[in-house]
Specification:
5-stranded mixed β-barrel, 24% helix, alpha/beta, single chain
């Protein structure tokens, strides 16, 4: 199926999505990569709050290249999601509703997605220049000293993604793998 979604992506909006569905997201999402996730984890461990309210927020695992041609930013392709696996369940528990990245996730992520009724989306790796055309605005909101890994508030219009793990735990990667004949695996 194909869905056009507007943020915030509440648990109710995510409930009907199934692994393999195509979505086009408009509204506000945030970018954060490894260093920002580590810093958020450390802030929580120290009893401090997060720099943004993550309730019903979507985080895109992306570190953009510098802006050019009067665009808000340069190439904006996804980074490998598994690097955030050790931090993601904690953020889901605190209200984060969805993440966008690329690649497989640990079983603990699937369990946390089901527990918290969240979704894992994938964006197409290698298509950063095209994906950046869906980003109409950007503002650094935290950890500016991290450069491209700072947390950025992004305004997106019809940002394309695919549901990889839905709120019930169905996993597109695992489903497809299971259909491959054993002698071809």
């Amino acid at each position: 199926m194909e869905y056009y979604l507007t943020t915030p992506l509440t648990k109710e909006k995510l409930a009907d999505l199934k692994a393999g569905d195509y979505v086009y997201i408009s509204g506000t999402i945030y970018s954060a990569r490894d260093a920002a996730h580590k810093r958020m984890h450390e802030a929580l461990a120290d009893g401090k709050g997060l720099p943004i309210d993550i309730t019903d927020v979507t985080i895109y695992y992306m570190g953009p290249t510098p802006s050019r041609d009067s665009r808000p930013l340069g190439s904006a392709g996804p980074t490998t999601s598994s690097r955030m696996d050790k931090y993601t369940p904690e953020l889901f528990d605190l209200g984060l509703s969805a993440v966008i990245g690329k690649g497989r996730r640990a079983d603990a992520i699937t369990q946390s997605i089901v527990k918290n009724h969240c979704v894992y989306f994938a964006a197409v790796g290698g298509a950063g220049a095209l994906l950046s055309q869906c980003i109409t605005g950007t503002e650094t909101v935290a950890y500016d000293d991290l450069g491209t890994e700072a947390i950025r508030k992004l305004t997106v219009e019809n940002f394309p993604a695919i549901v990889i793990i839905d709120s019930e735990g169905s996993n597109l990667y695992e489903d497809v793998y299971a259909k491959i004949p054993e002698d071809l695996r």
